Amino acid sequence: MESAEPEPSGSRPEEEEEEDEEEDEEEDGALLPPEQPAAAVRMEDCLAKKMEITVSEAEKRTGRNAMNIQETYTAYLIETRAVESQSEGQCAPVESLWRRYSEFELLRNYLSVTYPHIVVPPLPEKRADFVWHKLSADNMDPDFVERRRIGLENFLLRVASHPVLCQDKIFYSFLTQEGGWKEMVNETGFQLKADSRLKALNATFRVKNPDKRFTELKHYSDELQSVISHLLRVRARVADRLYGVYKVHGNYGRVFSEWSAIEKEMGDGLQSAGHHMDVYAASIDDILEEEEHYADQLKEYLFYAEALRAVCRKHELMQYDLEMAAQDLTSKKQQCEELATGTVRTFSLKGMTSKLFGQETPEQREAKIKVLEEQIQEGEEQLKSKNLEGRDFVKSAWADIERFKEQKNHDLKEALISYAVMQISMCKKGIQVWTNAKECFSKM
Amino acid sequence: MEAEGRAPGSPLLAGGEGPGVDSRPAAGAPGTARGPLIAAAEVLALDDEEDDLEVFSKDTSLAEVNSFTPSMPISPSSMINQYKFEDGPELRDLFITVDDPESHITAIETFITYRVVTKTSRGEFDSSEYEVRRRYQDFLWLKSKLEEAHPTLIIPPLPEKFIMKGMVERFSDEFIETRRKALHKFLNRIADHPTLTFNEDFKIFLTAQAWELSSHKKQGPGLLSRMGQTVRAVASSVRGAVKNRPGMFTEINDYMGTFSQKINLLDKIAHRIYKEERDYFNEMKEYGPIHTLWSASEEDLADSLKGIASCIDRCCKATEKRMAGLSENLLPILHEYVLYSEILMGVLKRRDQIQGELDSKVDALANRKTEKDLFSEEIGKLEDKVERANNALKADWDRWKQNMQCDMRSTFTNVAENNLRFYEECLATWESFLASQTVDLHVEEDSEDRP
User: Which ipTM value was assigned to this complex?
Assistant: First the structure.
């Protein structure tokens, strides 16, 4: 497999041929050990360009879960179709399968563990958050389900366009193999690789020499998370208030209409003005629905911040392990030296007990030294590989982080622009309605 | 929608006026209502001109007061002024302002007085300019005198004594300002009224010094006895008057029933809209700064974020203006007409009562054929009284309807204009932001999905 340098560009992938998958099959169940960063593929070779992926439907299902309890859940239809580079007028057939949210979660967990140096795209929220009064917090609510469908599709597209992740076999199977996928994932044994310490977000590890960039990045991801949450909360409140302003105007319509019944000259003006007030009041629904999509775009990056932090965390832990290993090696070397020279420079329990209960025999000491020397050698090899591992991790992680940064800047700028476009559209609608209303009023 | 006290939240412009039957030029509309003023200035001696302009420029705070031209567009309200006077384009000759609220603290009470300035060219006034101070009680007195003298004329509404429900304290600046504007309106509506404007008590109210007014007030029946009269009158009018009421007045009664209901609803709606807009404004105030905060941790995005923050802030200010417009125009006018509908019901009742007097005398005559002559003279007088009352009410009703239509038209048009200004300002803000962002990007969003 060609190991092309990962290109940190946010540009859209171009169309190219399929890359060689044989290498993957040689690996154990497509599990690429985290110690060897996966080679990235050029944007043009990403899966997203070879395959159309959509999450086209959502369906309510009932079934029995692992504990044989009846439950209701939503299943999502994933449709895929190979993109022919030269269309001969015939499209490839559409393949489809159903997946539920928990399977998406499983996929993502697998990806996070398998590619700890990658900023793995986030899933849409599990439960509705940042709701304002009109939105439902119910997971079964059709609007929520719809927005989640879009979010899941977005997730798949993000993974499929990621230079490294798109090559993953488990991911490919998720899209194409209905039965037995769960078993396949579990067979990779990725759960064993999962570092439980990564979950303990609040635990601090005293790392002496972290890469400064990662420390800064972690700080940034915290700030990003905090500011986007705050923004989303206030936006929801603003939406609520805006809704109120528009909807109250609807009352004008009714009262004007009733009033117009007793007026001769004013009647027509009142009646038609009332109609425009109804239009005004109704217009807010579409406006706010559009804004929800904007909120979802921000939410994606809110969750991305967590993924970013996970990578920083991984680095921290690796560095911590490295420092611990180095520390351990140093102390073993010291022990060895002491045993060899007979000097006790450092306090050790063994040393004390041997003083108290008698010296050991030279043979015993030799044996100990030998063991230590073996351990030291092992330790040095391990340290070397850990060092290498650490450096490779830093290098590949940083490459993905650069890619992510560009993607983030591009996406968020687009989102902000789309927000402005939405505001402009709202203003134009307002101008139209009130111009009409003004004309009606002036004829009263 | 809960009923709420009048509690406009934003600071009201001093001297700002709503459209309506007003002689005062509106602060926001430099030229429109100045037609009659200009002509009046020409009617006055030229050396008075400066005085006039000074008074008005103080309130309107306009620098270009000197640059008027007689051919300025005339507002509908001033047109109505002209329309009311049947002898051709007769113009206003009585100008009244109410301003400068002052607190007076005595051992017994604290009260506010307002300065009432009158400028006139009328012969029956000894001077052409008067300045007096009046308190709310004095206005109440004037109103009751007018009602007494003209029971079937529609006397303009006075602001209420004291708002219990609202969040406005009795002597808060807002409350005082709202009341001042309403009192100003009250006096000007009287001045515009073809009959009331010549009322003697009105003249005394405008011109008498404080002690003169007090002594004048003490003459005539006391308030309590007058109240007693009204109660008895209302009670007697319930019987009989309704069945002999001319169809026209029944129509008016029915109309007022519905109108009153609708205007009260509109008043509630308008207050609710104001409240919602204020809540929206409060949330928006927090919304913009978050983007600025965010921009501090970004590099590439910093400019876009700051741009959004500034747009939101500007829209926030525009919202504030929109709110102010509402509280300066729509809310006071709707409230005035809520009060008017009560007044009209009262006028109709009084007419019924006058008719009731006649009817009961006629009924009594039917039972006593002997003292016919005595009765017939009395009845003749009462018949005249009824006819006069009916005619007065009819004419005033027509006039009131015209004014109401005009007021509603201009007020709601103003509301629409207010909203238009708001949206146009926001539109300009966002469009200029968009322009700054899309210098090197496509304006159209990509039709493809995001990666």
Answer: 0.82
